[in-house]
Amino acid sequence: MSVRKLKPITPGQRFRVVNGYDAITTDKPEKSLLAPKKRSGGRNSQGKMTMRYIGGGHKKKYRIIDFKRNKAGIPAEVKTIEYDPNRTAFIALLNYQDGEKRYIIAQNGLQVGQTVVSGENVAPEIGNAMPLSQIPLGTIISCLELRPGQGAVMARSAGAFAQLMARDGKFATVKLPSGETRLILVNCLATIGAVSNSDHQLLVGGKAGRTRWLGRRPRTRPVVMNPVDHPMGGGEGRASGGHPRSRNGVPAKGYRTRSKKNPTNKYIVERRKK
């Protein structure tokens, strides 16, 4: 993993920091695992804009990712580590012994030629997926299920990882990337290792156009709006805008929006830090 700082030969490259892509082994995706990806531009079925600041962007194909890792006990060889335009993490192409090919989220340190396997009674090595009941305590994990068979929903972005802290009965205690400590059923699957591309947070776009390539249009700051458009709008001159809050009046910066009646509150051992 590495990043490169470009020489300032143009204004847009002066502050630009790009990924070195050392881990990437090919730029040609597996065609059988591609799907079309349609853009809405933030418009609904009537063509009216319902989400602001969305539109444009480079054309993409979706890579079909195996989040469930349900080919238990069948070894697979890592053929390539690839870039995925739809997510911050890199992805790995697996070639199973029965001939099937699948993409998975690549873990940090996953190498081409390495063999990975999922299921019970497998070794706790990087890239292997196994139930929380089989993973040694203290292990760094990622791509974690919340319900058995659901598929990975947590710790999937670049550099993310969780840690298995304890086990008691049918629940395991896991410390999540947000800092929250939570109880998860021990028969949920998790993958050993942290997610790849941990340098993603160091990247700098360098110019506004790069954000447009990602499909994000310029965002109007609430303090420059009129009172009719936003609670923080209005005022004479450069008014500060009052307490930070959303367009609907929900306070930002520390206001807790989780319901006190949420039935899953009982599974949270310790809330994430403010």
TrEMBL record:
Pfam families: Ribosomal_L2_C (PF03947), Ribosomal_L2_N (PF00181)
Keywords attached to this entry: Ribonucleoprotein, Ribosomal protein, RNA-binding, rRNA-binding
SUPFAM superfamilies in alphabetical order: Nucleic acid-binding proteins (SSF50249), Translation proteins SH3-like domain (SSF50104)
Chain segments carrying region Disordered: 28-51, 221-274
GO biological process: cytoplasmic translation
Protein family (similarity comment): Belongs to the universal ribosomal protein uL2 family.
Protein name: Large ribosomal subunit protein uL2
Organism: Aestuariibaculum marinum
